[in-house]
């Protein structure tokens, strides 16, 4: 009965490495790591950590950027849902979510950096006509010490994630009828949505929101590209200490990893507190019963902000494309003086290896995750169980900061003498791919009309036969979408690849991020564009395959 | 107690990873070539520069064809990462099956590895092509930041601080190009007159750290102290003029000194986008190469300030626990071959200066090294004669720590 073991295996796969990793960060944080000569517990690593220049500033910026990025993304998503549901913009945005979500964080961050830098596209378009700038202004925009550009980069990527999660949860609430009811009482549409749908929606997307808080407060790749540098965010500092030739810094890095865990936990606690306050304020607002005031503002904001965020993401990618073929490009010319394929020709030979590794790792991690997720869901169906309460464990890898436990895992592997291999990296990716695959598949799987299976069973098919010949083919579209999500998540992973691969396993993401330091925008443009296109291939296949295979059965082609 | 288990499992895992081959004897070159055949060499090399990466790709193709060696470039953002890896392996008891076979190195990283007995050698003197560097006439190929290399690393290329500027930008309203600054005090005056148009890479980047050393050499009264370990002198007293200088300079830098580019190449990209008007590099032909690559405008000009600038040689070394020492030695020797050195110096490829003694090569080989003087961004051929020697490596680390304590988090 392999199937019955599936949920246990799934949870063990997620929980054991995280606990082991955290343990291996916790012990060295208190000076215990015999292999490096630390065999007694002490507070020395903590004293060294707090003596690091700018450590408190690092921690504060991590905390603040986590909270602000989440608050802004959530506000934009809710405003949009209230103002635009059912409109033409809505259909258009819904079609764009998947490609938006598939853009890896690093590529989106590069796109934003190339856009808003003082010598970026925006300044070029406005100069010298509007601004009078003949040369790039000396303004501190990208990598500003307050982390504002970092927050902007995170917001652009978290909006599609929260939007997707909200759209998945909304049907349970029957928002159209709720809004219709409120409108019959005289509420304007957007106000009605805020007052009768939003309060019930939030509890359904609370876990994804917590995942965003945790991610934004501990992100590494985006912070390396857009975040402050003197000092960098806490997570980036930790990565630096981990690779310092002075091995005593490893103890310091472990203490830093535990501090990061504390920072993320604090961010979550503050968020929880904010939830209380917001819910109190919301009740007051709802009870007051205003039916019209603020409608126009809500309506405009709802459409404006999401349009802005979407436009920035896509124009950013377009900017990457222009840079990747640009000849010399003097400021303030809006377009390069000449175009050349030289950068592509130069990078192409070295592209094959990393692209192949990326694809191999992504396919292994995603397929394995899919098998586990299907087994767990099928087990749930056959035993007539409701989704188990252990579900929140799925969010564990998304809520515990990556740097806190991956770092410990890497120490474990190093002490074991394990050579960094593709398999090890794929295993690391599995931790992050599995939750996303499971979450995006579970909704469709559980909503699958049970009468189809019952019918098959009555006709004499076995349980397995029903699964293979009825359920699987009919769920092809959501399964492929979940696969595409898994591939996109794996392709975007930076830290697990870097730490578990020991630098030997290179993917397009590690290549692109390591080139960030080189600052050659043309080469970065090429790599970031490749990085952005790869997951898109997965999504195109996910949408195209069911239409091709079931070209004569429209009901099975999946959502348009 | 998971720790105990791990500590117990580590040696077992090592035993399983196979018996160690005896280290090859560098003096028996035929045997080394035989042993190298079929090996995979993992070369940990800084990868912040596309041109360098492309050159290493080319080397990989050549050693595959000539010696049947599979060379893999493991791209690191900072050489310290590779040093840290070897050190951690040694601490974990991994003495003969390390991950790193070859490492691009010099300065404080070499000093760290040598001090911790992390290097294989001596081997450099036995490489057939090493003789072409004529160390008896060129002591810099066997000296790394004042430390004798003693054959534990093999020279690969030369670097010297070279300034470059956009003559179009410096011209201003007149037709005459204003003279670029010729020493460190003049640089401050220039920055005051052109606020926001100069910067240096963020410490601990090696190009940025080299700028600190250059400034220190010119500003301090106790220059001799820099050529001995830092512990032997009064660090605060020797470096006081440097901090006064930087405190005065920073407000006039790009972004008012609140943000620094991460690396030299990023600084070059800021020159390309017109944010800076004056910059410097550690690779003298980099500006000319960048013009050819459309990264810098054709009005770019290079120069070496009158008093000379810091220069050094960069090397490759082999960790003590590399399982592919023979292959690594063959690669190190190939890197010294006239073919590889000339290809490396080619502006269209990388532009890194050769370590071979070109004057003592035979005529046919010497012709390979002719510099392209038609590129206006290229240095005049005699510009690199004023080379200041690198201080003791301990100064690098001490300066980096002091800079970070002073300028981070304010």
Characterise the protein shown here:
The complex is a heterodimer of chains A (560) and B (410). Chain A is 74% helix and 1% strand. Chain A has 560 residues and is mostly helical. Chain A has a two-stranded antiparallel ribbon. The mean pLDDT of chain A is 87. Chain B is an alpha/beta fold and 410 residues long. In chain B, 40% of the residues lie in helices and 13% in strands. Mean pLDDT of chain B is 86; it is low at 1-20. Classes of the chains: A mainly alpha (560), B alpha/beta (410). At the A-B interface, helix 1, strand 1, helix 3, helix 16 and helix 18 of A face helix 1, helix 3, strand 2, helix 4 and helix 10 of B.
Class inferred from helices and paired strands of chain A: mainly alpha
User: What best-fitting shape of chain B do the alpha-carbon axes yield?
Assistant: globular
Largest sheet of chain B: 6 strands, mixed
Q: What value does the average pLDDT of chain A take?
A: 87
Count of DSSP H/I helices of chain A? 25
Q: Give the termini distance of chain B in whole angstroms.
A: 43 Å
Task: Give start-end ranges of low-pLDDT stretches of chain B.
Answer: 1-20
Helix amount of chain B = 25-40%
Mean pLDDT of chain B comes to 86
Radius of gyration of chain A: 24 Å
Q: Quaternary status of these chains?
A: heterodimer
Strand content of chain B: 5-15%
- Using CB atoms under 8 Å apart, which protein chain pair has the greatest interface? A-B, 71 and 76 residues
What is the chain-wise order of helices and strands of chain A? Answer: HEEHHHHHHHHHHHHHHHHHHHHHHHH
Structural class of chain B: alpha/beta
Shape of chain A: globular
Structure in a nutshell:
The complex is a heterodimer of chains A (560) and B (410). Chain A is an all-alpha fold.
Descriptive tags:
heterodimer, A: 560 residues, mainly alpha, 25 helices, 74% helix, B: 410 residues, disordered N terminus
Write the layout of secondary structure elements.
The complex is a heterodimer of chains A (560) and B (410).
Chain A: H1 2-29, E1 32-33, E2 38-39, H2 44-51, H3 55-84, H4 88-102, H5 105-116, H6 121-126, H7 148-169, H8 175-184, H9 189-196, H10 198-204, H11 206-218, H12 221-226, H13 234-242, H14 249-288, H15 295-324, H16 342-382, H17 396-399, H18 402-416, H19 422-447, H20 450-458, H21 463-474, H22 476-492, H23 495-501, H24 508-516, H25 521-549
Antiparallel strand pairs in A: 1-2
Chain B: H1 2-16, H2 29-36, E1 40-46, H3 50-67, E2 70-76, H4 79-91, E3 102-105, H5 107-115, E4 143-144, E5 147-148, E6 153-160, E7 162-166, H6 167-171, H7 184-193, H8 206-219, H9 235-249, H10 264-272, E8 278-281, H11 286-292, E9 300-303, E10 309-317, H12 325-335, H13 338-345, H14 363-367, E11 387-388, H15 393-407
Parallel strand pairs in B: 1-2, 1-3, 10-11
Antiparallel strand pairs in B: 3-10, 4-5, 6-10, 7-8, 7-9
């Amino acid at each position: 009965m392999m199937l019955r073991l599936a949920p246990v295996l799934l949870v063990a796969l997620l929980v054991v490495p995280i606990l082991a990793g955290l343990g291996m960060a916790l012990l060295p944080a208190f000076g215990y790591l015999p292999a490096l000569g630390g065999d007694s517990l002490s507070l020395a690593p903590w004293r060294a950590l707090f003596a690091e220049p700018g450590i408190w500033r690092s921690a504060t910026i991590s905390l603040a950027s986590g909270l602000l990025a989440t608050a802004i993304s959530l506000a934009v998503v809710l405003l949009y849902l209230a103002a635009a549901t059912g409109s033409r913009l809505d259909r258009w945005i819904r079609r764009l979510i998947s490609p938006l979500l598939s853009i890896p964080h690093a590529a989106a961050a590069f796109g934003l950096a190339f856009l808003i830098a003082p010598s970026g596209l925006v300044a070029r378009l406005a100069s010298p006509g509007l601004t009078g700038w003949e040369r790039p202004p000396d303004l501190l925009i990208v990598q500003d010490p307050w982390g504002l550009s970092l927050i902007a980069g995170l917001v652009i990527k978290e909006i599609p994630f929260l939007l997707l999660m909200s759209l998945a949860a909304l049907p349970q609430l029957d928002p159209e009828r709720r809004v219709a009811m409120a409108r019959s009482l005289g509420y304007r549409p957007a106000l009605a949505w805020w007052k009768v749908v939003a309060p019930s929606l939030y509890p359904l997307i609370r876990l994804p929101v917590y995942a965003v808080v945790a991610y934004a407060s501990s992100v590494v790749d985006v912070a390396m590209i857009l975040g402050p540098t003197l000092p960098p965010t806490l997570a980036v500092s930790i990565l630096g200490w981990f690779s310092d030739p002075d091995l005593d810094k490893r103890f310091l890095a472990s203490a830093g990893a535990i501090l990061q865990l504390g920072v993320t936990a604090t961010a979550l606690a503050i968020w929880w507190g904010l939830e209380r306050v917001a819910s109190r304020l919301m009740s007051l607002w709802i009870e007051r019963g205003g039916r019209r005031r603020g409608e126009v503002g809500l309506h405009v904001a709802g459409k404006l902000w999401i349009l802005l965020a979407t436009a920035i993401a896509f124009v950013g990618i377009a900017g990457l494309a222009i840079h990747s073929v640009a000849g010399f490009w003097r400021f303030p010319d809006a377009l390069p003086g000449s175009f050349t394929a030289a950068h592509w020709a130069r990078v192409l030979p070295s592209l094959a290896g990393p692209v192949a590794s990326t694809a191999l790792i992504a396919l292994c991690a995603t397929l394995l995750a899919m098998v586990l997720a299907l087994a767990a869901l099928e087990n749930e169906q056959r035993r007539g169980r409701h989704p188990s309460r252990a579900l929140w464990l799925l969010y564990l890898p998304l809520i515990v900061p990556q740097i806190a436990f991956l770092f410990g895992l890497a120490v474990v592997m190093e002490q074991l003498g394990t050579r960094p291999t593709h398999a090890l990296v794929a295993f690391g990716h599995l931790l992050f791919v599995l939750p996303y695959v499971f979450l995006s598949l579970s909704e469709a799987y559980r909503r699958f009309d049970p009468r189809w299976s019952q019918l098959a069973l009555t006709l004499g098919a076995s349980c397995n036969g029903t699964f293979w010949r009825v359920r699987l083919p009919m769920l092809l579209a959501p399964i492929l979408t979940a696969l595409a999500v898994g591939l996109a998540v794996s392709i975007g992973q930076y830290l697990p690849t870097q730490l578990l691969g020991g630098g030997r396993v290179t993917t397009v993401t590690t290549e692109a991020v390591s080139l960030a330091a080189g600052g050659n925008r043309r080469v970065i443009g090429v790599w970031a564009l490749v990085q952005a296109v790869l997951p898109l291939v997965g999504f195109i296949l996910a949408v195209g395959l069911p239409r091709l295979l079931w070209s004569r059965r429209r009901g099975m082609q999946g959502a348009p | 107690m998971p720790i105990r288990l791990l500590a117990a499992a580590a040696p077992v895992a090592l035993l399983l990873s196979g018996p160690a081959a005896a280290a090859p004897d560098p003096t028996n070159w035929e045997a080394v070539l035989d042993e190298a055949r079929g090996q995979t060499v993992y070369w940990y090399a800084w990868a912040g520069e596309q041109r360098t990466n492309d050159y290493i790709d080319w080397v990989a193709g050549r050693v595959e064809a000539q010696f049947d060696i599979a060379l893999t470039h493991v791209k690191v953002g900072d050489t310290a990462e590779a040093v840290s890896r070897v050190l951690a392996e040694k601490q974990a008891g991994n003495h003969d099956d390390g991950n790193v076979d070859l490492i691009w190195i010099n300065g404080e990283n070499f000093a760290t590895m040598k001090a911790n007995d992390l290097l294989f050698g001596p081997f450099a003197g036995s490489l057939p092509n090493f003789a072409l560097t004529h160390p008896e006439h060129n002591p810099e190929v066997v000296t790394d930041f004042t430390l004798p290399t003693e054959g534990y690393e093999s020279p690969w290329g030369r670097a010297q601080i070279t300034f470059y500027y956009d003559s179009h930008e410096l011209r201003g309203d007149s037709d005459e190009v204003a003279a670029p600054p010729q020493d460190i005090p003049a640089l401050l005056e220039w920055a005051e007159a052109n606020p926001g148009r100069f910067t240096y890479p963020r410490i601990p980047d090696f190009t940025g750290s080299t700028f600190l050393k250059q400034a220190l050499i010119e500003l301090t009264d106790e220059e001799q102290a820099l050529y001995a370990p830092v512990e032997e002198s009064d660090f605060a007293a020797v470096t006081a003029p440097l901090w006064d200088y930087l405190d005065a300079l920073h407000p006039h830098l790009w972004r008012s000194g609140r943000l620094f580019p991460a690396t030299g190449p990023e600084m070059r990209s800021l020159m390309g986008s017109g944010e800076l008007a004056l910059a410097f590099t550690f690779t003298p032909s980099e500006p000319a190469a960048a013009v050819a690559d459309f990264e810098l405008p054709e009005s770019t000009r290079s120069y070496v300030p009158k008093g000379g600038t810091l220069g050094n040689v960069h090397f490759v070394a082999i960790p003590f626990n590399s399982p592919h020492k023979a292959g690594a030695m063959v690669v190190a020797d190939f890197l010294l071959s006239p073919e590889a050195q000339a290809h490396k110096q080619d502006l269209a490829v990388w532009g890194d200066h050769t370590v071979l003694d070109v004057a003592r090569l035979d005529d046919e080989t010497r012709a390979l090294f002719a510099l392209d003087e038609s590129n206006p961004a290229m240095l005049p051929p005699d510009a690199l004669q004023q080379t200041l020697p690198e201080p003791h490596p301990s100064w690098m680390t001490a300066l980096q720590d002091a800079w970070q304590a002073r300028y981070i988090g304010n």
